[in-house]
Amino acid sequence: MERTRFSLPLKTPLNTAAGGIAAREGFLVRVTVDGVSGLGEATPLPGWTESLDACEIALNAVRPAVESEKVDEAIAALSENPAARHGLSLAVADARAQATDQPLYRFLGGEMRVETIPVNATIGAGTVRETVEAAEQAVADGFRTLKLKVGADTVAADVERVAAVRAAVGEQIELRADANGAWDVPTAKRAIDGFEKATLSMLEQPLPATHLKEHARFRGGDVRIGLDESLTERTIAEILDAEAADVLVLKPMALGGVDVAREAAVAAREAGVDCIVTTTIDGAVARAAAVHLAASLQDVAACGLATASFLAADVAESDPVPVTDGTIAVPQGKGNVHPVLSGL
Ligand SMILES: [Mg+2]
Question: Which residues contact 19 (CB under 8 A, 6 or more apart)?
Answer without folding.
Answer: 46
